[in-house]
Amino acid sequence: MGRRFVAERRSDRYYRAAQREGLRSRAAFKLDHLADRYPILRPGFRVLEFGAAPGGWSLIARRYVGDRGAVVAVDPRPMDPIPGVTHLRMRIESPNLGERLNDDRFHTVLSDMSPRISGAYATDHARSVDLVRAAGAWAVELLRPGGSFVAKVFDGDLLPLAEAELAPRFRRWQRTKPPASREASSEMYVLGLGFRGRPDRADPGGAVESAAPATDPAAPPGTRYIDRRIEPDSLL
Ligand SMILES: C[S@@+](CC[C@H](N)C(=O)[O-])C[C@H]1O[C@@H](n2cnc3c(N)ncnc32)[C@H](O)[C@@H]1O
């Protein structure tokens, strides 16, 4: 770990807050922010999470869903156990994942997966979009009607293609960048709210409607907040 990296990390307020609050990762604040703004984590919800280690998001998700809810966290990396969180130590591409998920249905599918960074932006972007598509495929398979999908992605020219596949499956689709996401990073989150159901399962229409504000009163002053709403039909 470089000295500059260590110094930058120490001066990072989200990193320090995560340490202070025992949150395992600064990423936890990103999910907390999203859950505060959008109806993605409610008491009793069943949540499927991809890219969970070391467990920052899992802890936050567990707090929101409570004892009546459940969190299934998928990541090949090890993770210290969290009561109420089931860790499946496998990759999203694992052929055994479907069997382990047992056709359970979820209110929310989250992905904070990051590809191994190669340093070549086009490659990292393409891999990141592949991970969004893989998580999106599971969301379409396992979400309950009205459910939500949140996925991290490195922005770039391949993203609209993935959005064109996924956005029509939701009543509302948008991109957002939480304040804890580093300014300089190309990372952002795509959100699908109000899953329309799987046509082949004749799922009834979604019941969860979101009422997210256009601006974010909780964002610190000076935050550059990207929040573009994309109407699914305009992507077809
Ligand atoms: C940024 S970290 C996630 C941090 C986590 N959300 C937290 O708050 O602690 C990204 C994770 O994605 C996982 N990941 C990358 N590719 C994956 C894949 N193909 N399947 C499952 N997880 C993957 C990595 O193992 C890594 O733990």
Question: Can you walk me through this structure?
Answer:
By secondary structure, the protein is an alpha/beta fold. The protein contains seven helices and eight strands, in the order αααβαββαβαβαβββ. The protein has helices at about 5-10, 15-20, 25-35, 55-65, 95-100, 120-140, 160-165; strands at about 45-50, 70-75, 85-90, 105-110, 145-155, 170-175, 185-195, 225-230. It has an eight-stranded mixed sheet with strand order 3-2-1-4-5-7-6-8, sandwiched between helices. The longest helix is centred in the middle third of the chain and has 22 residues, at about 120-140. Bound molecules: S-adenosylmethionine. The site of S-adenosylmethionine has 22 residues, from α3 and α4. S-adenosylmethionine binds near residues 27, 50, 76, 77 and 112.
Distinct compounds present? S-adenosylmethionine
* Strand content range: 15-25%
Total DSSP E strands: 8
Q: Assign the CATH topology.
A: Rossmann fold
The average pLDDT is 84
The assigned structural class equals alpha/beta
- SSE order, one letter for each helix or strand: HHHEHEEHEHEHEEE
CATH architecture: 3-Layer(aba) Sandwich
Provide the domain count.
Answer: 1
What is the number of helices?
A: 7
Contiguous low-pLDDT stretches (5 residues minimum) are 205-236
Helix proportion: 25-40%
